[in-house]
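---------- Forwarded message ----------

FYI, see the Flavin reductase record below. Original note from H. follows.
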Amino acid sequence: MITTQLPTPGRGPRSEHPRAVGADAPHTPLRPMWCCRADGQPWPCAQARLLLRVEYDGNPIGLSIYLAGLMYEAMRDLYRLNPHDGPEPKALFERFVAWGPRRRPHPEQTP
């Protein structure tokens, strides 16, 4: 019979998502939960923040825009996962944007 000559099928290609946790895992978000692939902390974790600061060194405006966009995507994903008990907008702002580049105070706001 011909079927005995065919090789046994393998398990197929390995899934890329989620990636294994460990030393080789990057500090990138695991969506839609927005936790870090490497350490399981809410993303951006401390290591991801350091890496983003280095990557956007000299481009604080670009970092702010990037973080604001990610905040929007996280907000959408997290509210879809749990629409009745999602995170507060203030908490998401502090998590994604507030730690980023410092802004100069508006001249009218200085005492």
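H. also flagged this: DSSP finds three helices and two strands in the chain.
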